[in-house]
Amino acid sequence: MDLPLIWFLVIGFMFVMYFVLDGFDFGVGMSLPILGRSETDRRRIINAIGPVWDLNETWLIVAGASLFAAFPEWYATMFSGFFLALLVLLLGLIARAVSFEFRHQRDSARWRAGWDACIVAGSVIPALLWGVAFANVAQGVPMEPHQGGALVTGSLLTLLNPYGLLGGLTMVALCLSHGAVFLSLKTDGDLKARAHRLADRALLSTAGLAVVFLLWTVIQNPAPLVVVLAALAAITCLAAWMLNRVERDGWAFASTAATVVLAVSTLFGSLLTRAGGPFVMPASDPEGGFVGLTVANASSSAYTLEVMSWAALVCLPLVLAYQAWTYWVFRRRVTAAAVEVLH
What we know:
Blueprint: H1 3-35, H2 39-49, H3 53-56, H4 58-70, H5 72-81, H6 83-102, H7 109-139, E1 143-146, E2 149-152, H8 156-159, H9 162-186, H10 189-220, H11 224-245, H12 249-273, E3 279-287, E4 290-294, H13 302-329, H14 336-342
Keywords: Cell membrane, Electron transport, Heme, Iron, Membrane, Metal-binding, Transmembrane, Transmembrane helix, Transport
Pfam family, one: Cyt_bd_oxida_II
GO biological process, one term: aerobic electron transport chain
């Protein structure tokens, strides 16, 4: 049994779950100034994700912890090389979390507007930087061997290359679309109608960016798996737009979720099928035989991975079951009447 490869796939699954679930949280936050025409609207928008946003971030914690334990060299190289970008990303997540808790603590329009701005910034910045980071990981970054591992030799500006920036913009657009469709599923009345219109425009923009980004990814690595995943991502994005147009909210949300799954899987598939791999972090400028970090040379010992496997078999089903139960409990639409009663 190839445990390093299995754990690469497990960590990929965890990141996919994170982007699907926190992705619509980001999109809802981005839509706040566009759809929130009144304080009641803004409360409804925030309350749509209020019971689940922190639960969705569980997948980021689990993925980060698993990455640290299963692939310590990958963890060390990525977090040191991308330190500034990940620090800004973390500050954005903190600002968003604090804003959800503080905006209702004072009855002041100026106070709430300030925290609403933090929610928007804390949604756009992490989505952008996650897209930049994963696009660079898939493309490869300049690195050199260092103390048995690797050291990224570039800077933040190195990460802000055309492909990385396109990945970031695509992630922002995809999250906005995913969040707008979620709001059309979770609200009613005029707010629901405006969410539909926003999703319609956002999905068209997303489709354009995604096609260019995925085509660029395929050109870099035209492996059959990458081609199939990229094509399916484009198809599900188009399906989401068509389903949103006919107001099939549940199916439209399932389609945007599938688009996120397939787009992120395309990047992981590119790492998996890249020549000389499978990689966890390839070098963009391989020199002296050093091609980067592979699944084999970046993983922990077989015993560590075996212990982790038994723990995952017990814990992952519990996380999935609890999350499914939470979504079932809070499945109803957030109406204006319900918000006014609560506040």
